[in-house]
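Narrative of activities, Objective 1.

The group set out to show that a structural description can be obtained from nothing but a protein's sequence at a throughput compatible with the screening campaign. Below is one input-output pair from the validation batch, recorded exactly as produced.
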Amino acid sequence: MAQVKEGNFVFPGDVVEGADTLNSLRLGPGLVYRNNGTEERICATRAGVLCTAPKHTFYQDFRQKRYIPSLNDHVVGQIVSRNADGYRVDIGSAHSAQLNGLAFENVTRKSKPNLAVGSLVYARVSLADKDMEPELECVDATSGKAAGFGELKGGYLIQNISLSHVRSLLQSSNVLLSSIGTHIPFEIALGLNGRIWVNSGSIQTTVAIANAIKQSEYKSPEECTELIHAILKTL
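Output recorded for this entry:
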C-alpha cells in the first residue's frame, strides 16, 4: 500500500502519511481507521484528493452523486414524514434520516418544534453507520446550541450540486460567497449532501445568487469576480 500526503491523489487502500503522529484525529468522507492488532492505519476507501481541515481533520475530495452520510456533516434535509419521536428527513442518501423532536436547542417534550411535511432543516449528522439509519441533530456537537441549525424558512433550495463544489465553497480561499456578501446581504446554508439553501431580500436577488453558485464551479477566482459583476448588473 502506498503512503500519501495532503494534496496527493489517492486510491483505495492507500495509507495516509503522518496521520499516525496526531494525538486526536477526525476522519471525513473517503477515509477509514484500521487496526490489525500490530499497526494502526488511516486508509483511503475511494479515489480522490487527500485534504485536511482544522482540528486535525482529514478527508477526501471526490466526485459523487449519491450522498453517503458522514459523522458531523452539515446537511440540508426535507421533512418527509412525522412520527411519535420526531421526523423522517430526506437528505439525499440511500435511506432517510431520523431527527428526534428533542434534538433542538432548549426544547422539552412539551415544547418540541412543530415542523410540517415539506419543511427544510439545516442539521448535523450525529450518527453515521453503514448498518444503521443516519440520525440528525439541530444543535452544535460541542456547545449544544443551535449555531445556525434548525428550520430554514423561505428562501430557495439549490439541489444536485456536486459534493466537491460544496466543499470548495466552504474553503477560506474561495472568494465567491465573500464577494457576493460585500454587495448583497444574504443567508446561506451549505449542505455537504449537495444541497444549498439561499435567502435574501427578494426572490430576484435570491435566484441571482443561486445562479452564481451553480455557474461558479469550474471558474477561477478572477472569473468568479467577473461573474458576480455580470449578475449584479441584472439586479
